[in-house]
Amino acid sequence: MLSIEIQQTDGKARAGVLSTPHGQVDTPVFMPVGTAGSVKGVTPDQLAACGSQMILANTYHMMLRPGGQTVEELGGLHKMMGWDGPILTDSGGFQVFSLEHLREIDDEKVVFKSHVDGSLEELSPRRCMEIQRQLGADVIMQLDECPPGDADREHVERAVARSILWAGQCKEAWLDHGRSDQALFGIQQGGVFGDLRARSAEALVELDLPGYAVGGLSVGEGHDAMTAALDAIDSQLPAGKPRYLMGVGEPRDILAAVQRGIDMFDCVMPTRNARNAFAFTWSGRLRLRNAKWTKDPAPLDENCTCYACRNFSRGTIRHLFMAKEMLAATLLTIHNLHFFAEFMAAIRSSIVAGTLDDDARRWTSQIYPSTQNPGDQNPT
Amino acid sequence: MLSIEIQQTDGKARAGVLSTPHGQVDTPVFMPVGTAGSVKGVTPDQLAACGSQMILANTYHMMLRPGGQTVEELGGLHKMMGWDGPILTDSGGFQVFSLEHLREIDDEKVVFKSHVDGSLEELSPRRCMEIQRQLGADVIMQLDECPPGDADREHVERAVARSILWAGQCKEAWLDHGRSDQALFGIQQGGVFGDLRARSAEALVELDLPGYAVGGLSVGEGHDAMTAALDAIDSQLPAGKPRYLMGVGEPRDILAAVQRGIDMFDCVMPTRNARNAFAFTWSGRLRLRNAKWTKDPAPLDENCTCYACRNFSRGTIRHLFMAKEMLAATLLTIHNLHFFAEFMAAIRSSIVAGTLDDDARRWTSQIYPSTQNPGDQNPT
Fold first, then answer.
1. Distance CA B162, CA B200 (A)
2. Residues A127-178: pLDDT tens digits?
3. What is the ipTM of this complex?
4. Any alpha helices (H) in A222-355, and if so which ranges?
5. Which of A18, B109, B257, B314 has its CA 20 to 30 A from that of B155?
6. Which of A69, A290, A311, A331 best tests the B interface by mutation, with the highest count of B CBs <10 A?
7. What is the pTM of this model?
8. Are B207 and B186 in contact (CB under 8 A)?
9. B374 DSSP 8-state letter
10. Is the dihedral of CA B175, B177, B182, B187 positive or negative?
11. Sheet of strand B3-10: strand arrangement
12. Known catalytic membership, residue B266
């Protein structure tokens, strides 16, 4: 159903191939996010042309609209999204715990108010598995509790215990009623507390799940706290299974996480930044609303081979943003997704060549130049 | 610079090939509208894949933002739009005369307030030619005065006289300072008054321009008044030059106009209706927001080969509209543009086969079924 073959390592970094019922994926892999059944701004064929190999969809959004039952009747997520490659669905937990309208939580379930129609909805480990079965992704995630980045130890400890409990219940539901072509991943919690992360990982590994995710990072703790939390991950999780860092993201964080043994990533950053007129390049970020691009006939990045760079100038793209044309967001989305795919491919080649530490240092100084115009910094 | 070869006629209907500096176009042709430098919702390669052969851009919008000078410095409209096929620019007159902020008009010029920044702008025949030279389209239009559909005879008569005057001034400016790779079209006015249309055509033909447009229709006068105004067009305009009906549009109007000798059309209908969730099909229009499509796994049109129909169901597209995903508008835009291209190709084949009158009757009864659900009628 799902396996990872590690082909080469460089320190703790791993270059591998993830095999899924919908094809193989080169790892480390970055998964663009298709929140509500679409990676915003692009068609699936544009997505594939960007080099994207695997995508993520949000259980929370799909369960509220159009609903798991409707997705199933429409042929499942792959059919709905027009995407024949691998898909991962999250558990919905992250969105629910971030909601202002969270109503009630205990060890059985979470009750929350739908942002779509205000109805009261419930998510339990069993229900979470049922909905993800209806969605039909290749990788499904356990329901977990993800505390905010500034949560105190007591809060995080409770979330770890509850997430371990729910992992077991999810596994049971998945074995009882699940599909054999879906692989369940457990999610490590523990915030920035090393002993809690260790406890979480140990319990999950005991469940012998097909893969493991690291949750509760990239929630405001900062780059250094994140990397510190990842320092032990290579020894905490089994070498023969895929490791997924949820919600990351920033190229510098991806590099640091790969160097610590992570294989999979997802983030809305390339697509959301695109809609906000920010372009990723190997020499820093460009803010396309900046008036300095008005008459610039050069492409976003001279060396980029994406559709946007082959056909459009910075000047045109700036104009399209000022005129509020949909094409502006589409072109930057294509460019940013192409950048992320190229970035991951470069990381993989670097691991194979055994030069990741040097390359990572060089790339970081290029992508985050100290001379970066503050106006070109991205808004996150 | 521009020529039309009529290959076959069926009654007054003409099947031909329009040759331009950016390639050949099968006529009758429908031109999608790229208002502000982009056909909304699609990339140029998607546009070409839809079968679109020639597009239109609005001088009014481009002159205000980013400005003719900037377009020229960015390499012209073809380069900016990423479109290597033929482009036609209108004169800006239609938009200016429709503006609430029209300030002043005399035989020299129109003064109006920009909707972008409130600045006072001026459009004269000479300025109109200058801007269209900067934009660089293959076909450029004279500045004309287009009265509303309910204008009285006196108003229309004044507009005809002014448009004739401006046609001469545009021709002069174009010959003096224009580009030899741009073809200037005159625009017939006259509203629903046959004698004024005749007077307008006669004066324009005397100017011996590369092509002629019919303006001032599809502005609220209705299908019957429009077709009546077109009845004489085949005898009024020279057979050896292209004829363009501006702002049309509705498939039934296109059929009636082709049967009266028109070669070229443009309208925002397929793209705007797409963004409003309406799909054109050979058996009537579908309103994709309708709840009845929620679980419908069928494509928009069983026989359609467009990218949207090959990959997405009505149920998915409805969901994407409800979730406000950009992909919804993109998919319907692709479908509608594909429909219009296929529709024009069918008309052309029918002319060649000599069966247009019969086919037009059959298509009209299919595309406008009397059993059409009122909720599926389009909003225009």
1. 10
2. 999 999 999 999 999 999 999 888 999 999 999 999 999 999 999 999 999 8
3. 0.96
4. 223-230, 233-236, 251-258, 269-275, 307-311, 314-322, 326-353
5. B257
6. A311
7. 0.96
8. yes
9. G
10. negative
11. B3-10, B13-20, B23-27
12. yes
